[in-house]
Write a structure and sequence with these properties.
Blueprint (H helix, E strand, L loop, with lengths): L4 H12 L3 E7 L5 H13 L4 E5 L10 H12 L4 H13 L6 E4 L2 H7 L1 H11 L3 E3 L9 H7 L6 E2 L1 E3 L7 H5 L6 E4 L13 H13 L4 E4 L17 E4 L1 H9 L4 H17 L1
Parallel strand pairs: 1-2, 1-9, 2-3, 3-4, 4-5, 6-7, 7-8, 8-9
Amino acid sequence: MSQNRIEARMAALREKQEKAFITYVTAGLPNLETTKEIVKAQEAAGCDVIELGIPFSDPIADGPVIQQASFEAIQNGVTLRKVFQMMEELRGEGVEQPIIFMMYYNTVLHYGVKAFADKCKQVGVDGLIIPDLPFEEQDELMEALQGDDTTILIQLVSPISKARVPKILENARGFVYCVSSMGVTGQAADFHREVLNYLTEVKRVAKIPVMMGFGIRTAADVAPMKDIIDGAIVGSHFINLMREHDFDPKVAAEYCSTFKAELNAL
């Protein structure tokens, strides 16, 4: 059984005592070719994992920045099938980066759960994050993903998951995605005492690395929780940065290498 790319990367980071840096990119913004260039630039710059957002008409867990990005990608004609095609090209062109699809369950259902899981394995999708698929309803997808270790389902927890955290994380794989603020993505990075308590609690029960996302712009934003978390995820800010610089892959690379260096120097 091949080791999953995400898990292999996490193990390598643990060995080096480094923290993980993960970014979110909406697939197909401004187009799929540029998305590919941004992925490659980030891989070269040492980004650890890339989340590819699959555009969806009603992305309820996302803030205005990612909602707008999703809307524009759909307007550009981006579909799940086209993103699968892009993944196949990326892997064919030698990209070894762990890549996760961040998406909504309706898209999976529409494609067909089994067909979707098979296609993910075939094109080298390493993980899935599905914010609107509650833990209690994951069985069908989990079953479809079993058989090899290519694609794993990443679990999300939030401050309101409290009592359920041990159950959610019992067999969790890859890393835990901690939603750090009570709300949608892309909010101001003002972290409170409760967030530290919550992260400490998640860390206590997690057997896998703990990542924090939502509202992070710079490595300094995670300084207060540097001793608790194993890495940081940047989404809305990264999309804004790409927009401001006309989706220049060089800017993506520069941001990634700087953040990664600063994160590990905290």
